[in-house]
Amino acid sequence: MARDINFSRAISQKAFKDLTKEAGAALSYRNTAPAEPLGITGFDAGIEVSAIDISGSGYWEAAFGNDAPSYLVIPKLRARKGLPFGIDVGAMYSYVPDSNIKLWGVEVSKAILEGTAATPALGVRATYTRLSGVSDLDLQTTGIDASISKGFLFLTPYAGVGGVWVNSEAKGDLKAMAATAGAPLGTENVFQPRIFGGLKLTPFPLLGITAEVEYQERPIYSLKGALSF
User: Fold this and answer.
1) Which of 70, 79, 87, 136 has the fewest Cβ atoms nearer than 10 Å?
2) pLDDT for 8-35, tens place per residue?
């Protein structure tokens, strides 16, 4: 069952930094797509679900209460549109039901190599996400990555590396509790590398199913189903 992020007690600056890293990893933009571009007439839209293990961390218990979930599960709506010159643009929106967690983001990617029947595709991408709806936390991420993919019949494996910059600031009750405890929380700006790999399955025309595993501070598991044309 989802819960609001609503801090019940103050946390230290170190705990806030650790929370920033893990929340940034959870809320940053997922790839869930091969490197080849969609093409000028291409469009891809669907539903994505990501999950990250947050068990055993005191700062998450402060955020969710003593019955904090073992996994933070984030459903999203995703859409991408192909443009000329091997460029794709995309957007994402998330609302975790029965919680105050909302998230939106945008992406732009460029195919350096579009790929052929014999050669792989290579692409680069820039992303941005922002958390909303949580009055105690202001958090945003900016990311860059590069990926490679090669299709085989209806299977397209891909892999990539990149980095994410996470910026967070305590707000509302969290900021007030820290000040009252005599330990004000400063803004955190962290950089963390990421590595990911996945497989896109196209069992039927227009339908794509993508499974991905990423490591960024902790393992993150994603599954996306989309209509592509």
Assistant:
1) 70
2) 889 999 999 999 999 999 999 999 999 9
- Could you give the count of Cα atoms lying within 13 Å of 201 in the half-sphere of its Cβ? 8
Beta-sheet strands, E only, within 24-70: 43-53
Strand partners, 149: 121, 158
110-140 pLDDT per residue, tens: 999 998 888 999 999 999 999 999 999 999 9
pLDDT, tens only, 192-202? 999 999 999 99
Within 88-218, residue ranges assigned H as helices are 172-180
CA distance 127 to 206: 25
pTM of the prediction?
0.94
Residue 97 has a pLDDT of 85
Assess contact for 15 and 145: CB atoms under 8 A.
no
Structure tokens that stand for 184 in this block: 């004000």
Residues 6+ apart with CB under 8 A from 75: 47, 48, 49, 94, 95, 96, 97
CA distance 153 to 20: 41
Give the helix/strand (H/E) hosting 23.
helix 13-27
Helix (H/G/I), strand (E/B), else coil: 81: strand
d(C-alpha 125, C-alpha 35), whole Å:
9
All residues at 6 or more sequence positions from 189 whose CB lies less than 8 Å from its CB, including other chains:
165, 166, 167
**How many residues belong to the chain?**
229
Alpha-carbon gap, residue 228 to 38, rounded angstroms: 9
